[in-house]
Design a protein that fits this description.
By secondary structure, this protein is mostly beta strands. The protein folds into 2 domains: 166 residues, Jelly Rolls (Sandwich), CATH 2.60.120.10; 131 residues, Jelly Rolls (Sandwich), CATH 2.60.120. The strands form 6 sheets. The chain has a 6-stranded antiparallel beta sheet. β19 and β20 form a beta hairpin. The longest helix is centred in the first third of the chain and has 14 residues. It starts with 6 loop residues before the first helix and ends with a strand.
Length: 354
């Protein structure tokens, strides 16, 4: 509805502004919404995507990781992590998500600390002697394992291998930061005492008498994930995402973490997904295959170990360009936070679902 801004109304707006008030009729330049075609009962508005789709190619990222080890000679004073910044957003990959790749050289330790930010670690270049310690439990980090560091849990990383190790970090930093809920503490020692042997790290039972934080198993070994993918070979899967599995939260089987959902998805040879969009933001890491993701009027052509982002409420579809080989991607979204707030929805081919 158009408003006739008379001189009297403009003067009244000025009076309100002096009192740090404003009329609801004023257009808000910060409002991130777009107006859709008129609905049956009037104007319909919907959110505009925050940020733009963007792809970071492994062939360009990896040399920078190697150089980071030369530029930052040790990891005790700062984390050696290269963050992926969305071209149109301040310091974040998506509106509520940060994605980065972290490197630790042989013999290094990333000191023990905790924060209200929740984080996941998806291992790219791991080793049985690379470990993340969460609340005293040591979790090996082998290739393509997923390791969680839930909110407000003590954690440190230790590389006792003889080679550089790398993993993907995804954190809910912007979400927690915008709510002004960012608490942080350092343990004071570089490492936590370990309360288990690495080979028992996947056990779900743990001591309950010493007051430690209640954390279920925080490691999802790739061998189990790959076995799950193989067991469902030929299943119909999703018309949008192919064969997709969510890493269930432990111990209750809910989302991976309260603010982050992690999934592994397999696109069969020749897969062409149906376009859809959802209110959640999503970041992707390609394990294998060659494909493209069409979104925002362009196609992001991806291959092994590339990373990319699809902003919230963006139409997109995934395509496997190979007719003979599958493609596998690791995905993290902020869907659990939106579901908890009653704000999650998906749309595909004109149908709106919650």
């Amino acid at each position: 509805m158009e408003i006739d801004y008379s001189d009297a109304l403009k003067a009244f707006d000025g009076e309100l502004a002096e009192m740090h008030m404003r009329g609801q009729w004023l257009h808000d330049p910060q409002r991130r919404e777009s107006t859709a075609p008129p609905a049956e009962f009037g104007v319909r508005s919907e959110p505009s995507p925050a940020g733009v789709p963007h792809l970071w190619r492994w062939e360009e990222v990896y040399p920078k990781l190697a150089r980071s080890c030369e530029a930052l000679t040790e990891s005790y004073t700062a984390r050696r992590a290269l963050a992926f910044k969305n071209p149109t957003l301040p310091r974040c990959t998506a509106l509520t998500l940060n994605m980065a790749i972290q490197a630790i050289r042989p013999g290094e330790i990333a000191w023990a600390h905790r924060h209200t930010i929740a984080a996941i670690r998806f291992v790219i270049q791991g080793h049985e002697k690379l470990r993340t310690v969460v609340e005293g439990i040591a979790y090996p980090m082998e290739n393509y394992d997923l390791v969680l560091t839930p909110s407000w849990t003590w954690h440190d990383h230790r590389n006792d291998a003889d080679s550089m190790t790398l993993w993907l970090d995804v954190l809910d930093v912007p979400f927690v930061g915008n709510l002004h809920q960012g608490f942080y503490e350092e343990l004071g020692n570089k490492m936590q005492p370990i309360r288990n042997q690495p080979e028992t790290a996947d056990a779900r039972l743990r001591p309950a008498w010493d007051g430690a934080a209640t954390v279920g198993g925080c490691r999802y070994p790739w061998r189990d994930t790959e076995r799950m993918l193989a067991a469902h070979e030929g299943a119909p899967g999703s018309p949008f995402d192919g064969l997709i599995f969510e890493y269930a939260g432990r111990p209750n089987g809910g989302p991976t973490l309260p603010t982050l959902s992690c999934s592994i998805q397999r696109l069969p040879p020749g897969f062409v997904g149906r376009p859809h969009r959802h209110t959640s933001s999503a970041v992707y890491f390609v394990l294998r295959g060659d494909g493209r993701t069409e979104t925002g009027g362009e196609a992001m052509e991806w291959s092994r170990h590339d990373s990319f982002v699809v902003p919230n409420w963006s139409w997109h579809r995934h395509v496997n360009r190979s007719r003979t080989e599958d493609a596998v991607m690791f995905t993290t979204t902020d869907a659990p936070a939106l579901r908890a707030l009653g704000l999650y929805r998906e749309e595909a081919e004109g149908s709106l679902t919650h």
